[in-house]
Amino acid sequence: MVEDPKWELAILATVQGFYEKLLQDSVGGEVPVPPGLESISLQQADGSVQETLEKMRRWLRLLDMAITPAMLRRGFTDETDPEIAEAVLRYFARKRDNSDIKRDKTDLVATFLYRHPRVTGQWERRGYGLDGSLPLSPFEIALIEILADTDVPSLPEEHVQILRRFDPLQEEAESFRDLDLLLESGIIPRVRELKQSLDVSFYHPGVLATIAPYNAAFGKTFDELFHAATAEIKSFAEEVQQQGGSILGNVDGVDVTVDHVAALEEGELLKIDYGAALEKFTRVSKLKKTLERRPPIRGTSRRHGYSMVDRGAAPKPTVPRPRPAGLDVQAMRSAVTPQQIATEETKLRKVEESVRVFVRVADPKFRQVVPMRFFNLTLTPAEASAYCADYLEEKSLRADVAQVLLRTVAVVARMTTELEELKRAENSPSLWKLHSDSLLALLEISRSLSENAGRVSALANQQGASNDAESLSISLQKLRDRSDLVVRALSQARSQAAGA
After folding, report:
1. Residues 278 and 157 in one domain
2. Tens of pLDDT along 34-70?
């Protein structure tokens, strides 16, 4: 909690001012403020800070009951100062209320902050972790700073596992090309249930940093599909009206007329919480499907760049493209592009850098076990020594041996990471393809590395450096074992898909 009462007073005063404005806009008039909580009085508060805080907390609890998520959604605009959103987020995080309404409000505020960084592109600047994976995102770091004065809950392992489901869900949401399919998929209630299962962990910076990007991506996709569907409906309504008709179709036993469509305000609907407006969104979707089944109207125009299916034929819903029916590993390896190799080379250099830093600063007794995101990477003594070497730039046998060992460790680490990512992406075709492509590129890099290692090993044997040759042999065997595991994983995926 905040130790400085004046700092807490400043936060709550910001929230109070924002809430009062929302309420005034809603009721269309002034909101009576309790004596002593007017803005002028707050500026003059001195020795009675604690008394003022108690009054303000009671007043905010009352205001909070009046402010709905929909009002909050309307209140946060492009012109809203991010400092206001940060203060509101601090207020919610300190209360840690697990009710649906409070969680929805927190959801909205965190997503607003993600969509409105203080500096354009601020959340997109990311580095690499030890195994080439992404560490804390800039947005999560910002949330940690915003909530630094709040007792955030610890994050249990079961909630960490829940968070890992959001990336595949985001890929699924972005794959939909039709409003009907998105709504029928049940992704909205599924995600809502996941959020509910997080309990008070919902207020953890890591949770909010995972959910806000999902919300932003889902919102963008949903808005586009909803606007496309309503534009299509309005276009058809215009055509019916031009032909002298008035009834477009029947939805749930009720005739939908041209006037109903004319009164449709999609902008207002999109300001309502998705959960609360789900029934309305579903009715729009049903109307669209009803219109698709109608006979074609002569002279139908194709407006808005969005054409409906021929109404004389059954609708052909587009479904998310399934994961490729397996991979012909050898054929795909031959199709790996130089750009894919270059991308992986960049990641491998990052892994080498990070492991080198860890090995050099770690206790010598423990430096052979490097912690990765999904596993512990175990180094041989020779590999650990290579990562401490200061002669890598030499034109010598020992430098060549060390460079091969460094690269071998990095490739094994990247393969292990991508295999773990592949397992977690089974329900996301695009993510699965992304990780399988990385593995194919790593297999090609492994092949070239093995050839180079063979030449260095032969040279070591020629010069009597049998220890170096043995070290290379041990590391290369790890690389071969890992490469075989990659090939089996991709081949098994192929056979499973073929047998499905």
Report:
1. yes
2. 887 876 555 555 557 788 888 889 999 999 999 988 8
Q: Show the DSSP H helices in 243-380 as ranges.
A: 258-262, 266-269, 278-292, 329-334, 338-361
Give the pTM. 0.54
Give the closest residue to 290 by CA, choosing from 237, 227, 238.
Answer: 237
Of 296, 320, 344, which residue sits at a domain end? 320
pLDDT at 194: 92
Rounded average pLDDT over 216-234? 82
Contact 100, 160 (CB under 8 A): no
Give the Å distances, CA to CA, from 314 to 228, 251, 308, 321: 20, 18, 12, 20
Return left, alpha or beta for 186; rule: phi > 0 is left, psi -120 to 50 is alpha, else beta.
left
Rounded to whole angstroms, how far apart are CA atoms 9 and 219?
Answer: 34
Calpha distance 181→167 (Å, rounded): 19
Considering 268, 292, 320, which residue would you say is the last residue of a domain?
A: 320
Question: 31: number of CA atoms within 13 Å, CB side?
Answer: 23
Is residue 379 scored above 60 in pLDDT?
yes
To which residue do tokens 């049940």 refer? 186
Do 492 and 395 share a domain, yes or no? yes
Range of the domain at 407: 329-499
Count how many residues are written for the chain: 500
Residue 319 pLDDT > 50: no
